Amino acid sequence: MNIFDSVREKIDNFVSQKGKLAAIVIALLVDFFILGVAVMICTPSQKSKKRKPLPDLSTQFTPNQEFEKPEEGSLIEDYYFSRVAKDKWSEEEKDEYFEIPSNKKFQELKDSNNRLVQEILEDTP
């Protein structure tokens, strides 16, 4: 019983010395308890959900109508799955898509690569 008496004495000393802090801690604990009870009450339990029974998979599927083919030519004219890529860009494509990197961009790339290399080397034995 000495352990319980010493714990009780320490709690009494703490409450008598720091009453406001003790009241705040107790109020927070009570609030968390009430909030937890409210959450448990408000959330539906898994047992209350009704599940649909699974269909019987042992029966064979038999369609009651003919299958319809999709319409031909539904792809957009400018895009085909078998489009062949060009070997070279045209001048217009080059002007539109290609950007000559500046020295600042090269330096940023170099710095980011150096950081990656440094991270990798830090982890090596």
Verbal overview:
The protein is mainly α. It is built from 4 helices and no strands. The chain has helices spanning 2-17, 19-42, 91-97, 103-122. Helix 1 (2-17) packs across helix 2. The radius of gyration is 36 Å and the shape is flat. The mean pLDDT is 82.
N-to-C span: 53 Å
Helix percentage: 40-55%
The structural class is mainly alpha
Number of helices: 4
Strand content: under 5%
What is the radius of gyration? Answer: 36 Å
User: What is the typical, i.e. mean, pLDDT?
Assistant: 82
Report low-confidence residues grouped into runs of 5 or more: none
Key structural traits:
0% strand, 125 residues, mainly alpha, 54% helix
Gist of the model:
Helix content is 54%, strand content 0%.
Task: Give a topology summary.
Layout: H1 2-17, H2 19-42, H3 91-97, H4 103-122
